[in-house]
Specification:
This protein has helices at about 1-25, 35-60, 65-90, 140-150, 155-165, 170-175, 185-195, 200-210, 220-240, 250-260, 265-270, 280-310, 335-340, 360-365, 370-375; strands at about 310, 315, 415-420, 425-435. It is mainly α. The protein has a two-stranded antiparallel ribbon with strand order 1-2. A hairpin with a 5-residue loop joins β3 and β4. The protein is extended, with a radius of gyration of 30 Å.
Length: about 450
């Protein structure tokens, strides 16, 4: 929670400093500065919005009466200052100048595309790139940020630093939370970021590690298959960007991908490639992508048919009696009486496929802390991830899929870390066993 508060406070401070910069422009204004007013009006609207967005977020995180009262007074003060600034700038705005299209970043202005002399050109909003510390996403962030922000000769260094800090999220933002907003700090911050992440040797290792440990698909599932192919392709393209000889890796890449496919898809590939002399990576990727499209269109067709009922030879087949074609090969037979009444569990992450959270490819791909956040926010059982009960009422036979441990064979007792002194006055750290059934605990 402290990290979230600090991150929002940093955004609030940056917005406030930018508003103060506009007030300094007002104090030192001369008629020669009139050409800057259209951009100043645009910046004022943007910084005001950023400030109030940050304040709203802080009000959610800090709901104490004192903090709320201070926030209200701050809102009133900034609203009045921005209103005076806007009035000042509008009065001195050149009549022949028109305001630019309202955007929320340099990325959506003409300057970012080398068109500083096209004030009437209206462009759609383009979001700035963000980076959360995932090494496999660094190359994309670096190239986009350089093209949109760093390479702009029109943008001052202090503004570049603001855009850089606002683009960093999660673990990547933590080391730069307290970076002062000064022009000199932009080059220092950007250099520190390059030193930490722009290492080709380490990036190659990370891409290959992610490629190797990418989770495979056990049963036919469109979402899992799509996630597998998308991530596999992303990692391979990253290696290619780092000048690895990927084009000559047909055998290792194709076999690595085939080993991660479910049995039905693998069987379909063997039938498709029975006359091929070698396995080509591109052929495997194209085949799996085609299969995904076939499964998607088949599922959609069957769902549409099942929703309205299907008339075959004069009979109406109820929706609950029909299975999806895509999953028929891997579905286990079940009693007819339960088929019509059993409903597949709905994924808490609202995936298009019906599956449990423990089989969700999106959930599995998340980091450990992100998975914990999902379980906490969805109020799921910490043991079996069910939404029907909490952990104290869980009746699952196992508490961990990695190290099966029966709940019936183990009893957890309460303990406490304590400091005890010996006869000579020396302090020792110890762990005390607490008897939860007693009113008092005596230690000898």
């Amino acid at each position: 929670m402290d990290k979230k508060i600090k991150a929002v406070q940093l955004k609030k401070r940056i917005a406030l400093e930018n508003i103060k910069s506009l007030e300094r422009f007002q104090a030192k204004y001369s008629s020669d500065d009139a050409k800057q007013i259209p951009e100043m009006l645009e910046d004022l609207a943007k910084h005001k919005e950023e400030f109030f967005t940050a304040v709203s977020k802080l009000e959610e995180l800090e709901d104490k009466d004192e903090a709320v009262e201070a926030s209200i007074m701050e809102r009133i003060d900034i609203e009045e200052r921005c209103r005076k600034l806007k009035s000042f700038l509008r009065e001195r705005q050149p009549k022949e100048e028109g305001s630019l299209n309202d955007t929320t970043g340099l990325a959506s202005s003409t300057l970012a595309f080398g068109r500083p002399h096209a004030p009437n050109l209206r462009l759609s909003k383009i979001e700035l790139p963000t980076f959360d510390g995932d090494h496999t996403k660094w190359l994309s962030f670096r190239d986009r940020f350089i093209a949109m922000i760093d390479a702009s000769a029109e943008l001052p260094s202090i503004a570049k630093l603001q855009y850089l800090l606002s683009s960093l999220k999660g673990d990547a933002a933590v080391p730069f939370e307290h970076t002062p907003l000064t022009a000199d700090n932009y080059s220092v911050t950007w250099a520190a970021l390059l030193k930490r992440y722009d290492n080709s040797r380490l990036l190659i290792r990370e891409y290959y590690r992610k490629l190797h440990y990418l989770l495979g698909v056990q049963l036919v599932c469109v979402d899992k298959l799509t996630h597998l192919v998308d991530e596999f392709t992303r990692f391979v393209n990253g290696l290619k960007k780092l000048n690895e000889p990927v084009d000559s890796w047909d055998t290792p890449l194709s076999n690595m991908l085939l080993m991660k496919l479910d049995r039905e898809t693998l069987l379909a590939w063997e039938k498709h490639s029975v006359h091929f002399t070698t396995d080509k990576y591109k052929d495997v990727i194209d085949f799996v992508q085609d299969r995904i499209q076939i499964l998607k269109s088949t599922n959609n067709f069957v769902k549409d048919q099942a929703a309205s009922g299907i008339k075959v030879a004069g009979l109406i087949r109820q929706p609950g009696q029909r299975r999806f074609i895509a999953n028929a090969a891997t579905s286990r037979s079940a009693p007819a009486a339960s088929t019509a009444h059993t409903q597949q569990p709905k994924c808490p992450l609202e995936c298009s496929e019906d599956h449990t959270l423990c089989n969700c490819p999106v959930f599995i791909a998340k980091e450990v802390q992100q998975r914990r956040d999902v379980v906490a926010s969805k109020r799921l059982c910490w043991n079996c991830l069910s939404s029907n009960h909490q952990v104290r009422a869980c009746k699952s036979d196992y508490s961990c899929r990695t190290c099966p441990q029966s709940n019936e064979d183990n009893v957890f007792l309460a303990t406490a870390n304590i400091q005890i002194k010996d006869d000579y006055g020396n302090t020792h750290e110890a762990r005390a066993l607490l008897d939860s059934g007693s009113m008092s605990n005596f230690i000898a």
